[in-house]
Amino acid sequence: MIAPLEHRRRTEPSGLQREHMLAIEEEENRIPRRLQNAIEAQPAIAVATAMAVGVVIGWLVKRKNW
């Protein structure tokens, strides 16, 4: 039987669990942080790349036979 929510004991994660959770968060944020740093360092290249990708996608959509 499951205890009602108000009677459940709230447990804090142990030190090892906390370190593991932080390591997972660090791994998940690594690639977005690298992209953000690259965009901040060279915004003109980021804008040019976005425009080029938009043109290519637009060209592909225009050429598609619906």
From TrEMBL:
<protein>
    <recommendedName>
        <fullName>DUF883 domain-containing protein</fullName>
    </recommendedName>
</protein>
<keyword id="KW-1133">Transmembrane helix</keyword>
<keyword id="KW-0472">Membrane</keyword>
<keyword id="KW-0812">Transmembrane</keyword>
<feature type="transmembrane region" description="Helical">
    <location>
        <begin position="43"/>
        <end position="61"/>
    </location>
</feature>
